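FIELD: query
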Amino acid sequence: MLQRTTGTVGGNRILDQLANKKTTGLSDAELVSLDAGEFLFREGDAADALYIVQKGTLRVVSGSTVYETLKPGGIVGEMALVDQSSRRSASVIAGTRAELLKIDRKQFLDLVATNPGFSIEVMQVMARRLRVMNRRYSNRS
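FIELD: result
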């Protein structure tokens, strides 16, 4: 099994398949390559896609705080497809050379229609991130 994010062991089956392009509906997905230190996007940028990590590691950061380290099978940018009016809530920078699949809203909706479990996995990622943030900030009070 893949370790997808810091503190999380075990991969999500559909996300791992998507990262390896083993699921139909991704033949037209754009491949994004980043060198170490290169930003995928910055906090406050317009948001239009989510990304699935195929290779490498990325850090989700805001200011000097690292929220999460993503590894193959991980996703980032999912809030852009759920809340279309929002801007990027954090920056994402490559920790190593990285390759990602870019999934726009149409591709996302197609994936949800053909792989219903995909939407559950995206929601699980969002729920886990919310729980982590809740714990992090409830300990500060």
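FIELD: remark
The chain has one domain: 13-107+115-138.
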